[in-house]
């Protein structure tokens, strides 16, 4: 959440919405790439109050380079770019300079003779990323892909001669796997089976490639491609269907490490565990068998001596390191409680870089020395001159919902940001923030919005992980599928009940916000609970599942059908008609703010415009914000700044003030 001074007004138009004679007057403003309707001018005092919170930033680990330096991603101007750091807390040297944010990055392997990295970049948030090679010696960037298709997930062979990646270039719908010869820059198609495929890892000799076909969060299919013959071999999946991620060859080049929730010895597996399979002996080893939480990521050292993995334990990351090949645990120093992002071993295998984020500190890169156990901070990101001792740390609460599990009332986990020093007898307003996905998970990370709400506005923030969220096991993930979609909305109704029972929370002043699927949850919550929710903010949200599936980009359609249901099925179409907020806009009587990116390939902007028209058609005023240079969410600082300021103004007027 960042803020920027408002640009001069380019266009100011007064118009009447055409949806109905009862529609309220619409005040429209166009400034550069921004179109806003019914959003008042942002007061200067609010701009100044927000400024420091909007100038916090984080740094994330991208990869190690030759000479002991590392690449990090951070923002010093309008967008996130790649920087190089060569010593702890050393100078951050910016390498890429683009008006569009750089997507990820992958450094060339040490010893390959290449000195540089591959990165992705799209235009205006359309997510049709193009891969580029950045040469550190010449500082030149070269386009590797066709400039039109969607390309992502680059992976180098160990010798740096080949680059595997996923692309829609063949037909615009299927995501195939391609391998490029980096000497000639010529790509060749290696997987064209249809569906969503990704490259996972090259064998040490570069002759084979592990690949995965992704169907949904609960279903993937792993395989291996012989790069000489082109033959694809799919591995058998115990139980017929399971989730897989992170396939990697072991140093021996034959056995593999992977994460899955496949049954083990015929016993169901609720969580995704880290496993090692040796095809020669048939032996399967579960490295995280004693941990009843998901493994989220793992990496192997290039010297073949260590493996590191991260578990997600009730939203908190735990780091584990094992020796290879014996899998013996390595004693680690205590890490700050938080969330671990990207991680990788240094080229010599002696150090492990991690991105660490806590509720009171933005993301920064730390390096763990495996020999000494020392943890060294490599970046220190700015927090806008704010006093970190005053940041609010969320607590994890669990509230009862409407149904039962194992004979007991089911409970929903939620992170609770409580304003400090609430005077006795005072009830504070509440904002409920709902994640997208729907297979996403809200984590207790640094959140300048939460800190501003708590410290400057005296508003509590509740961040639930309703059913269907990842991180709580296979059963939990599937509880909202298909016709059970509104059960997750009932979890928000149960949270409203819980709020009413808390002596410090004001149940008469509750707002709800969310993006993507979370935007649908906002609209559906307003549809069902408008009498109990004063206002809602919908960011790039789904307003009708049928129109969403019809208009989302073709490469995503089958993925979303696997989660939401198939709109071509008459029975499912009836469910969509029943649960979609667009069909029940007359029941949305709370104040509504809708924000959208024009280039969104996931949830098209038409989803936002149709709900705005429908709610206005019933005589309800709606704030509407559209950025012509953004996609699925907002990534450019000036746009994020304006959206955040408008949101805070919306809460001031419709949550903190008297009843509308």
TrEMBL record:
A single MF term (Gene Ontology): aminopeptidase activity
Keywords, in A-Z order: Aminopeptidase, Hydrolase, Protease, Serine protease, Signal
Listed Gene3D superfamilies: alpha/beta hydrolase, TolB, C-terminal domain
Record's keyword annotation contains Protease: yes
Domain Peptidase S9 prolyl oligopeptidase catalytic: 445-655
GO terms, biological process: proteolysis
Top-rank lineage group of the source organism: Bacteria
Keyword Lipid biosynthesis set for record: no
SUPFAM superfamilies: alpha/beta-Hydrolases, DPP6 N-terminal domain-like
Signal sequence segment: 1-21
Listed name of the protein: Dipeptidyl aminopeptidase/acylaminoacyl peptidase
Lineage of the organism: Bacteria, Pseudomonadati, Pseudomonadota, Gammaproteobacteria, Lysobacterales
